[in-house]
Amino acid sequence: MLEVKNLTFKVNENGVERSIVKDISFTVENGEMLVITGPNGGGKSTLAKVLMGIEKADAGQILLDGEDISEYDIDHRAKAGIGFAFQQPPRFKGMTVNKLLSLAAGETLPEHVCCKMLSGVGLCAKEYLNREIDGTLSGGEMKRLEIATVLAKSHKLCIFDEPEAGIDLWSFSMLVQQFERIHKKKDQMLMLISHQERIIRMADRIMVIEDGTIKKIGPREEVLPTLLTDGAGCACMEQEM
Ligand SMILES: Nc1ncnc2c1ncn2[C@@H]1O[C@H](COP(=O)(O)OP(=O)(O)OP(=O)(O)O)[C@@H](O)[C@H]1O
Known about the structure:
Layout: E1 2-13, E2 16-28, E3 33-37, H1 44-52, E4 59-64, E5 67-68, H2 74-80, E6 82-84, H3 97-105, H4 111-120, H5 125-128, H6 139-151, E7 157-161, H7 169-185, E8 189-193, H8 197-200, E9 205-210, E10 213-219, H9 220-229, H10 231-236
Helix pairs in contact: 3-6
The protein binds adenosine-5'-triphosphate.
The site of adenosine-5'-triphosphate has 11 residues, from strand 1 and helix 1.
């Protein structure tokens, strides 16, 4: 279970302090899929970064299965069980796709396992397995590789920030299937930040973040209809792909 208590994150812009995440508290139950949505600039990605340890909270507490991880750095949080896409996968000479997947999994993966992972995110394994992670990969290919690295091993909590961004319809469908598969097993918590109706519809609970605060949180059946009718909700939700 993830418990987030009174989380606050501020930035200093030209000497003026601004709260981007304002005293946010919520929980994610074991096996639950929480989808976070809301208008652009509301603070969703920042919240994710604070949870991952990329940004340091100014106040508040984060507990993962009762363990206080608030002061942990990124590596320590990853070890504690938080999985998230590499924002910038390592791009040094010799880092191939299969090496990256093995790195993410924490063990040397046999080729057939890497192939399965790549197919799962819509990448044709044969073409990618030995390819170097460099500037020749397209944005959509990189995004899917990032997602494959998160899925490479089981975590207590997986965080995906707009997994739909920049990927084609076919790959998006494959991703949705991956999320459904993980969700069905109920052994990992999933936190997905998304504007996509198809992803929002998979949620057990939906949390709407606006202006750094939780505007709504509740079961899908309760919150989804309000997104469809609410002005702000409509603005933040993209049509089904
Ligand atoms: N380090 C920073 N310094 C200054 N402002 C920041 C910083 N990080 C985020 N912001 C601002 O905080 C606000 C929230 O940004 P964030 O990326 O978290 O929003 P979001 O809800 O994920 O938006 P979107 O739906 O567009 O992805 C924005 O106004 C952004 O410009």
